[in-house]
């Protein structure tokens, strides 16, 4: 765990959905914290409630019990202190890369020149400085995800929320973007809450991994990832006996939690 003050606190979250007159308790008493600058991943089988947690943290969904606290403030709705990156970048197709990144800045009272300069810095940060005037249809899926990340960072959020941001990409692009995210995290020192099905991805990127148990979703165990930063290639890390040992430990935990699941990638 990083030795820094807590930036995000998820405390005692419970959530039950009513469907067809049946109650489905998805989360029960789920708690964890993320320290300032820390990268924490949530991992667990499909349906254990990872996205539900993220939507509650985002402020788009209310919890039945519990609360989310960001920088000491209880979350009561969506806010600029939380930036979001989803599986699909969902860029505005009629806007260039620069204008997509500027989108979040338009309500902040910045001048056009200030917005443009800030978007330019962020496009440089995500490695797309030369593509500012390209439209989404002129860019690959990986490039679009980079723009999505730049757009989320543009508002300088206290916490960056990422819901399986690389899962729709091919394996090679995914590895490139994972490495890029490590670099961007090192440069920005953002606090990140990241949802993934991919165990290697979680261990490669994170300082800690929160393993969720399903039905109802709750914290099974929190694992510290002991590898020094900056981290090299994932393939190098995979070769280390310590990595293999940790991976197998986490895998056993997930399996014991979710017998029968096939959604967490081994
Ligand atoms: N609005 C809703 N109404 C009813 N049920 C819902 C709603 N949203 C989510 N659920 C149910 O809550 C459970 C948890 O869903 P959630 O998407 O949070 O899981 P997840 O762990 O993110 O899954 P995945 O890994 O497949 O994305 C699922 O059984 C889902 O069907």
Automatic annotation (TrEMBL):
Domain of life (superkingdom): Bacteria
InterPro entries noted in UniProt: AAA+_ATPase, ABC_transporter-like_ATP-bd, ABC_transporter-like_CS, ABC_transporter_ATP-bind, P-loop_NTPase
Keyword Acetylation annotated: no
ATP-binding as UniProt keyword: yes
Record CDD domains: ABC_NrtD_SsuB_transporters
Every ABC transporter domain range: 8-239
Single Gene Ontology MF annotation: ATP binding
Coiled-coil blocks: none
PROSITE patterns: ABC_TRANSPORTER_1, ABC_TRANSPORTER_2
UniProt keyword list: ATP-binding, Nucleotide-binding, Transport
Name of the protein described by the UniProt record: ABC transporter ATP-binding protein
Lineage: Bacteria, Bacillati, Actinomycetota, Actinomycetes, Propionibacteriales
